[in-house]
Specification:
The chain is mostly beta strands and 104 residues long. Helix content is 5%, strand content 37%. This is Co-chaperonin GroES.
Length: 104
Amino acid sequence: MSIRPLDDRLVVRRVEAETTTKGGIVIPDKSAEKPSQGEVVAVGEGAVLENGERRKLEVKVGDRVLFAKYAGNEVKLDGESLLIMRESDVLAIIEDTPAEEEAA
């Protein structure tokens, strides 16, 4: 089954939560917070402006995004838990930087 969000909404799949800290401490499932990062799996056509034109979304399918802790609405589709949220709920797009730039 596929899903197509409307207007300026997008569908996000949460990334798996870290189960250990950087120091190697294992975090129990009950104590772990829901991750606030996800991968965009579908986007709408964009917000409708007052003049009737559509403003395209900056977020695209495949982007990894950060969002607020309680952003969006959680839905289950084919047994998978997904979030449907507005583009304005996205705080940032995570961009990978090449290793060459990090060394400079």
